[in-house]
Amino acid sequence: MTAAAGFGLALSQVVAAQETAAPGGITSPVGQAPVVEQPQQPEVQAIADIGGVLTPRGRLVIEPSLQYSHSGVNRLTFRGIEILSTLLIGVFSAEEAERDIWTAALTGRLGVTDRLELELRVPYVYRDDTLTATVPTIENQSPEIERDLSGSGLGDIEITARYQLNRGHNGWPFFVGNLRYKSVTGDGPFDIARDSDGIEQELATGSGFHAIEPSVTALFPSDPAVFFANLGYLYNMSDSVNKQVSDDLWVGKVDPGDAVRLSFGMAYAINPRASFTLGFKNDFIDRTKTEYFDDNGRGTLSSRTLNVGSLLLGWSYQLNPDVSVNLGLELGVTDDAPDTVLTLRVPFGTNALARW
């Protein structure tokens, strides 16, 4: 998934279940049962692609967003013989990679019923990678090789359905079931141009594989805070690529690694308009298996597993009942996670479809 898979962090005003007793000095009419208020789902916009508050029936939300992701990798490699821990005979090579991704997306959410919401997300992706390799030689020369790659275009369009499973009675948390589908509208890693040696000449804007992610979100209101947690499984569908990537190498079936996705945190309302969110997310991504054919026959290459963990911070401000500004910051805490991910979301809501 996605990981997909995606993040903006925000919190609207926390709405907790209120007692139904009448104010002092006011009694209910004789013979009329008191009105029992239903617990209201807490309005948490904690993590955009995990699920939270559902859009009311007939309400349409249009959400433009802009996301910036940066990853930096520094690797020092020794090629030679180690005689003692302080005596190395050979050469060192230093590799540095700087990866930047800009994603502009337009998301639409529609409340089909008060418990069912549908979402469509259309992203446009721009990627830029700078790869630098320094290889000192025995003659004390240090040639440096720098390579710039970029790619832009439509990303993978996503469709999500969310359904509120319960009404949060008797102190129970609210549970929301989520089902996300990721398409292959972006250029995948086997759709881009390569040279005769199989080296890519541009960057992909999509994963290249269909994916489905079921997940469950739990929301527990504790005024003025709301605790949230999400558990999901990202299933990446395998595909027979059957493409020649270099003069003597063909790629057959590719099985992308699935992922277990976990997140939890707390959203806190400072006042009726402003709020912030603290959280943590972790994706455990399995190995990707690639079948290949070359002059030596047939084989299978497996990648290593990935552990992508990030600290989540978010701020939200409600400009008016229909418009809010949400800013999310994601800080990588594991080697496989991006260093920083900054997301700005500005959802606009309208009840124009409520009469339908």
From TrEMBL:
This is Transporter. It comes from Billgrantia desiderata.
